[in-house]
Amino acid sequence: MSTVDPLRWPAIANVPTQGRTRRRARKAESEFAYACEQADLSLEGPEADLTVLEDALFLRIADAGWLGLAESYMAGEWLSSNLPHVLQRLLETGYAPKSSARPKGLFDARATPVDLLRLSAGEGLFGYASVFSSGVPTTERVTLTPPGRGKMKHAQPLSVEVTTLSDPTIVERLDQADAQARALSTLLDFADVGTGTYLADLPAQTPAAALAAIARNATVDVMSCDDELLAELEAVAAQAQGAIEVCALPGPLPEPGRLRRRFDAVVNVDGVEAMDPGALKTWLHACEELLVPGGRVALQTLVGTEELKPLDSALDVLRAYLAPGWHGHSMESLLHAMNARPGLRPQEALVFGGHYVEGLRLQRERFEAHAREAAALGFDAVYRRLWIFQLALKEALLRAGLLDAVVLSATLQPRRGV
């Protein structure tokens, strides 16, 4: 704990010791031990699945549930040689420690630090998603019934073509860059990006989408309010000979009616999962305003399954430290949200969680191998453990069937009478 900066990490530096928390800690300890037993996780011996180094772990769990479990890992109070396996087994047993209610935050469009992307994903800065060359696609047309509430309850059933990629058969470390590039290429295919396309990346998360698009002879506007990313985007644009324009947004998303340009396509990479419902509505409204008739919007994101709902608190560490608006939107709710816009009509979906999770594993292993470089770049031990934990958590959630990964697309229908 002596290495924890209390100004930067107040919740990590200060173990909760209130009387009520102390009284609940013993119960938290017994419940954790029972969950580990049910999950067939060993806590002792040379081959222990996890090792508890300090009893502060149980004070934190008693105070903040899954967030406390994560913060204890960040503090170095427990460790595991196979963190994704431990988290997956706890999730599969339904481990859901009680915690004080903490309100969910709002989407702030913060981007992953570029240096972290380099250490995790490599110089391509592709982000999280991967599509490996193995895996068999299966396509079916799915009819989705509108949710029976609000304005959607009188809507017509929604028919969408859904392609599911079977799990990759062989995954090696050397496949990482190619798989990430293939995921990005898939997204651009869904947006119908090609020669002459005028594309908006809103809000941008990395320069990768823009670089892949100009390789297809498209012209790109990249939009963000993240200062560090904007600097990186400006450096990339300076080498793109006018094919990339950087647009600094005053806030996470453009206000309706403020952007006057029109685009053939709008894409988003790894952003929608971090949007609260209000931000998602604003983003879809912006897409509708930005597109020309017949234009396409395509997004790549993690989605929650029905099984996630009772274990949603497992995501609290993401909300607390990385993306305050992180929301487990389901694929169906995203498609219905698109369809609720007057002009947008969902077209197709790709489900590829089995590929995404293998890419996460490779990124986590790559980052662990570059821990010294991360330290040299100023990411302290707490941040490094946070980064490893969030990668392992997403991997565990995917393997446990609580999250999936999708690419979705919709088309802007021409206005009547036009």
Blueprint (SSEs and pairs):
Layout: H1 10-13, H2 19-38, E1 51-52, H3 56-74, E2 78-79, H4 83-92, H5 114-121, E3 137-144, E4 158-165, H6 176-190, E5 198-201, H7 208-214, E6 219-224, H8 227-238, E7 244-248, E8 263-269, H9 277-290, E9 291-304, H10 316-321, H11 331-340, E10 344-351, H12 353-369, H13 371-376, H14 381-399, E11 403-412
Parallel strand pairs: 4-10, 5-6, 5-8, 6-7, 8-9
Antiparallel strand pairs: 1-2, 3-4, 9-11, 10-11
InterPro entries: CFA/CMAS (IPR050723), SAM-dependent_MTases_sf (IPR029063)
Pfam families: CMAS
Protein name: Cyclopropane fatty acyl phospholipid synthase
Notes on the protein architecture:
This protein has two domains: 10-92, no CATH class; 114-412, Rossmann fold, CATH 3.40.50.150. Helices cover 40% and strands 18% of the residues. It has helices at 10-13, 19-38, 56-74, 83-92, 114-121, 176-190, 208-214, 227-238, 277-290, 316-321, 331-340, 353-369, 371-376, 381-399; strands spanning 51-52, 78-79, 137-144, 158-165, 198-201, 219-224, 244-248, 263-269, 291-304, 344-351, 403-412. The protein has a nine-stranded mixed beta sheet, with helices on both faces. The protein has a two-stranded antiparallel ribbon with strand order 1-2. Helix 5 (114-121) packs across helix 12, helix 6 (176-190) packs across helix 7 and helix 12 runs antiparallel to helix 14 (381-399). It starts with 9 loop residues before the first helix and ends in a 6-residue tail after the last strand. The mean pLDDT is 92.
Would you state the CATH class of the largest domain? Alpha Beta
Which fold name is given in CATH as the topology of the largest domain? Rossmann fold
Mean pLDDT: 92
- Rg over CA atoms, rounded to whole Å, is 22 Å
Shape: globular
CATH superfamily of the largest domain: Vaccinia Virus protein VP39
Major sheet attributes: 9 strands, mixed
Q: How many β-strand stretches?
A: 11
From the N-terminal CA to the C-terminal CA, the straight-line distance is: 65 Å
Summed up, the domain count is 2
Share of helix, binned: 25-40%
Number of helical segments with 4 or more residues: 14
Secondary-structure element sequence? Answer: HHEHEHHEEHEHEHEEHEHHEHHHE
CATH hierarchy: architecture of the largest domain: 3-Layer(aba) Sandwich
Taking pLDDT < 50 over at least 5 consecutive residues as the criterion, the unreliable ranges are none
Structural class, from helix and strand content? alpha/beta
Which sequence of strands runs across the widest sheet?
Answer: 3-4-10-11-9-8-5-6-7
Q: Into which percentage range does the β-strand content fall?
A: 15-25%
InterPro entries: CFA/CMAS, SAM-dependent_MTases_sf
Protein name: Cyclopropane fatty acyl phospholipid synthase
